[in-house]
Structures are given as structure tokens and as C-alpha cells.
Design goal:
Layout lengths: L8 E5 L4 H12 L3 E6 L2 H15 L4 E4 L5 H15 L4 E4 L6 E2 L6 H28 L3 E8 L10 E2 H19 L4 E8 L5 H10 L5 H5 L13 H12 L10 E4 L8
Parallel strand pairs: 1-2, 1-4, 2-3, 4-6, 6-8, 8-9
Antiparallel strand pairs: 5-7
Length: 259
């Protein structure tokens, strides 16, 4: 299937590793012009080389801390200077921070919201004029299933992610008349550096496959791969999903208690 991404311009945040990196690579494979950003230049340089080796395509990087409004605007400016527009924005920057409620101080609450919620808000505001000028703009906000079904000791991440989901739904209605689609993917357990550290700490005697398959609360019987997450994000920003907006898709192997 032709996803209609040839020549489209995409920004992917938090793209030096994990889901962001895999999404950038998948978009490049489909013919998109991709700009990646993250805080660490060395990791970005490595990511660019990995993508080029896998796809044969050049991608560009800009160092950016999404909590810095001027840095966010700089990514957008450099993208437009190089590619003359923006069609796609994937807000992926963020980390997991899950703690009992009474252990979370104001600084941790503020920092988590600033990174995950306001980071997305800053990028959407900066990119919006160019998305409005595009033939069809697309935004995907990467959130988490915990934002839909928060559990005990899930703070502040569950609250930040729930806010990102509300942002997605509201914007899908407001930006629909501009032909901009806004969706969210709600992540469950996906292989990452954090999960791999947990594997080495909790079950160093097990293979990855054995550790992955030990989570009995996942109906599909294993932890997800970054490529599986990237495939869904790429679909959502493509022409194949041209009538999908305001949608939240769980990428969790069926573990969430909600549709």
C-alpha cells in the first residue's frame, strides 16, 4: 500500500532512541523528509547514521529541549528553511515517572507536565501555521494507556498523559476545519532502554524472549517492539488514515481495560 508520504515533511521529537527513532526511520522509508530532535547531540548524530544506514536516506537533526520555547521555535524554523513547510508532527518526547501520590513534590509535578504536556503544546503552536498551509496536516501525540486507566502509584505520568489525550481530542475538533488531523497513540509496555534495564535487574538469567513473555497480564503474551509502535504512528499520519481524527489507539497487546 502506498501511504502517500513521499515528499511529506515530518518533525519527530524525542527521536534519538526508542519509539521516536524507529518512527523517524519508518517515515523515511516511506519517503518522508524527516527532522529529528532531542536534547543530546551525540545521540542524535548516532540516530541519523542509523537511519541513513537502514534507509539510505538523509535525515536532519536539531538539538532541542522541548521545555524551552525558543529551542522549539528553532526546530520549526530550521525545518521550514530546509524543506519549505511542515506536514507532520509527532510529539514523542517524554519519560516515565510513576510514584505514589504523596512522594511527588511540586517540582516533579511541574517538570513532568512541562515536558510531556507543554512540550507538545509548544511544538503544536510553533508548527501550526505551516500545518495549516499544508495540503493535509497530521499530528500524533504519543501518550500512555495509564492516562486512560490510571492506577495506584502512577503519578505524575498518568495525569500528564491524560491531559495529552484531552489536548488531542479538543484539537481534533478545533483543527478539523483546517484539514489537520490530531490523534494519539497510548503506549503500554514497549521495548525500551528502561524496560531493558528492568530485564537486566529483575531477570538477568532469562533471555529477552523469556522476560518479554513473563507478563501474564498482556493478552498477546509479550512486550511490544518499537517497530510495532512506529508502524501505527506512521499509519496515522499517512493518507491511509485520512478520515481518522480524535482517535486514541492503545498499543499495549490488549492489556488495557478500555477500548
Amino acid at each position: 500500500m502506498d501511504l502517500g508520504l513521499q515528499g511529506k515533511v515530518a518533525i519527530v521529537t524525542g527521536a534519538s532512541k526508542g519509539i521516536g527513532l524507529q518512527t523517524a526511520q519508518t517515515l523515511a522509508q516511506e519517503g518522508a523528509n524527516v527532522v529529528i530532535c532531542a536534547r543530546r547531540e551525540e545521540r542524535l548524530q548516532t540516530a541519523v547514521e542509523e537511519i541513513k544506514e537502514a534507509t539510505g536516506k538523509e535525515v536532519h537533526y536539531v538539538v532541542c529541549d522541548v521545555t524551552d520555547d525558543e529551542a522549539v521555535k528553532n526546530v520549526v524554523t530550521k525545518t521550514v528553511e530546509h524543506f519549505d513547510g511542515i506536514d507532520i508532527l509527532v510529539n514523542n518526547a517524554g519519560t516515565s515517572s510513576a510514584n505514589p501520590f504523596m512522594t511527588v513534590d511540586d517540582d516533579l509535578w511541574q517538570g513532568d507536565l512541562d515536558l510531556k504536556l507543554f512540550g507538545a503544546i509548544r511544538f503544536i503552536k510553533a508548527a501550526l501555521p505551516y500545518l495549516q498551509a499544508a495540503d493535509q496536516g497530521a499530528i500524533v501525540n504519543v501518550t500512555a494507556v495509564g492516562g486512560r486507566t490510571p492506577g495506584a502509584a502512577s503519578f505524575p505520568t498518568s495525569v500528564s498523559r491524560a491531559a495529552g489525550q484531552a489536548l488531542t481530542k479538543g484539537l481534533s475538533k478545533e483543527l478539523g476545519p483546517d484539514n489537520i488531523r490530531v490523534n494519539t497513540v497510548c503506549m503500554g509496555l514497549i521495548r525500551s532502554e528502561q524496560i531493558e534495564k528492568r530485564w537486566q535487574k529483575e531477570a538477568p538469567d532469562k533471555t529477552w524472549e523469556e522476560f518479554s513473555q513473563s507478563f501474564t497480564d498482556i493478552p498477546l503474551g509479550r512486550i511490544g517492539q518499537t517497530q510495532e509502535a512506529a508502524n501505527t504512528i506512521t499509519f496515522l499520519v499517512s493518507q491511509a488514515a485520512s478520515y481518522l481524527t480524535g482517535v486514541a489507539i492503545n498499543i499495549d497487546g490488549g492489556s488495557a481495560a478500555v477500548l
